Amino acid sequence: MVLPRAIPDILEPKKKKIAHYLSEIQIHLKEARVKYEKEEMERLEIQRIENEKLQKLEAKDLERRNEELEELYLLEACFPEAEKLKRDDRFLSQWKHYIQCDGSPDPSIAQEMNTFITLWKEETNETLEEVIEKSKLVLNLIEKLKLILLETPPYDLQRKNIIQYQGSILELQELLHLKFNRATEILLRQASTLADLDSGNMEKVIQDENVTLYIWANLKKNPRHRSIRFSETQTGFEIPRILATSDIALRLLHTHYDHVTPLSPVLKPPQEHVSLVTDFVREEVKSVQTAVSKDLQEENKQENESNSVHEEETKAEEQGDVEEQTVGHFKSQELLLENACEKPYFLEEDEVDLCQFTTLGGVYHLDILELPPQCKPMKGWMIVEILKEGLQKYTYPPETTEDLETENVFPPIEVMLEVHENVIFFENPMVARWDAEGKHWKTDGISNVSYKSEERLITFNLETFCPVTLIQDAHINMPFQSWELIPLDVNKVLLTVTTVFTELQIQIKENLCMLASIKVNNKKHPSILEEKWMTPVSFITALKNAGLNIFPTGHSHLYVVINYKHPSVEVKAYRQMALLSSAFAFCWSKWNTVCDSKKTIFQVREHLLKEESIQNPNWTLLMFSGNRAQSLKINESSDAFSEVLKEETEFHSTLYHMVKDFASQEAMREVRRSNCQFVDCVCHMLLSTRLLSYS
């Protein structure tokens, strides 16, 4: 078939259209390429200008770096000065105790403690009331020894002193419990004379600020009397028939303290760390002394008098001493923030991990005791048989059951305990029992646990009587949701930490701390700790004992997802924040989780006391790497993170000089007037909470 000639004529206009279309595309591509090249050139030019600007700012920062660091070192001399004042206070308290002559021993002197313990061991026939009264002094001595171990810097503690103090603590704890046992025996010998008229059994409750003692003696051995409730309390037991018909006594000694859990090891920096600190300090001191000596040489050219030279050299030596103390103090703080690589010990099955959990509300010492021979009146005398072996425990269930069905004949004992009113549980508490053989807490042998939070009553079944305690996750309030540090008055600030369950407000004034308020589930919660001023170490211990633990340890990162920051960066940030805290407010930033571990981001603003409270304060977003501080262009409401420098701002080597750029002269005067103990106390709380890593 032959195609007609008209078809090429029909396609011709389409070819022209396509050619025209292609030509237009090429023109548009050319224009787009030219536009892109122009925009790229403009972008590169802008980038070049920005880079030049940044290079100039970096050069300017490097140029004044030594000057800024020297000024910071002078300001940070307040930390060793505060340490010196604390050391003086410790010596002063020893002297005050010496001149008091009140008969109580100085817990730091081994001879006095040994004498006290020996004399108390020789005292016999003490009643429970007398032991409880004496226990106040004993507990005070134990508390003082623990504070010495916690408050004394690691480099001031010698190994022999640690062994001495911990040995005294253990001896006092053991002796105190022994005294309770002997006093219980004396009371049980008189059980028949103290019997209740209705039940015929003896029941006694002794309550004190440190202990609560419940004792029940089974004198009637009534098999139907199996439900035991102590008068005016919810505490009690449901005992099996075999115990209801036995010559026994039940004792519940609730100590509001914990003398069962092994003492925590005292952290001392390893020898290699000590040598590293020493070398670092020496290098820093040498560099500073070199800089100072150069200044002296220039001044000596102008002043040739020998007396003047001698004075300046003395100044240089003093400057070197200050530098050495400051740098040494910094390195010791940095070592405290280092995270442990692994757990300190291997856990057995059902063993409580004390790095993850904490005991709360003290210890409930549950004992089934053999009823001792009762005293009998005879011709105006009271005759009593005293057993040589003393108070004996009744074994339940017995070691040999002669093929009896143990579960039926020796069922678990139901226990009802009142939870200490000064302890907060954010979740239902768990129950743990003490394994005397393994020397640790375990969760086996306990069943049917139920907790009534409103009544603060916990009920559970226990296979055999032994010390029990309530435990809670130590990291239940970590990580934090937010935090804020705001000046309140001269040398006084308010630290607010918000967690999933609670909001804590802590006031820091000079060298003391106080719990200002606590909210649980957005409702104010009363606490015995409110309005009580304490030293930082005592305050932290008190909060932990109340269930308000916001203080991470070296192992906490193994149980909590954290925003890890390098220890040196954290320490530098906390120290400089503390220096500025009298005139500047600090606040958390969501961008702190985005930057890497060698940078921290937080908000800051000037906050003078005479200023009225601002509804929506204007915060400045700062990024600090330990060696450089800068103000960021973004803010909290920005959509994306960027490290771009804020317009018309510069780089600085310290936070102090960074805020100085936008701060008033009055604010900087307030900073320089800050009390050294106040700055050290604020720094201590910031280091203890580790807000930048755990928020």
TrEMBL record:
Annotated GO MF terms: beta-tubulin binding; microtubule binding
Keyword Coiled coil on entry: yes
Pfam name, any one: Casc1_N
Occurrences of domain CASC1 C-terminal (ranges): 439-606
Domain of life of the source: Eukaryota
Extent of Basic and acidic residues compositional bias: 295-318
A cellular component annotation (GO) from this entry: axoneme
Parts forming coiled coils: 22-72
Domain IC97/Casc1 N-terminal residue range list: 30-224
Chain residue ranges for the region called Disordered: 292-324
Annotated keywords: Coiled coil
Family recorded in the similarity comment: Belongs to the DNAI7 family.
PANTHER family, A to Z: DYNEIN AXONEMAL INTERMEDIATE CHAIN 7 (PTHR20929:SF11), LUNG ADENOMA SUSCEPTIBILITY 1-RELATED (PTHR20929)
Protein name: Dynein axonemal intermediate chain 7
Organism: Muntiacus muntjak (Barking deer)
Taxonomic placement: Eukaryota, Metazoa, Chordata, Craniata, Vertebrata
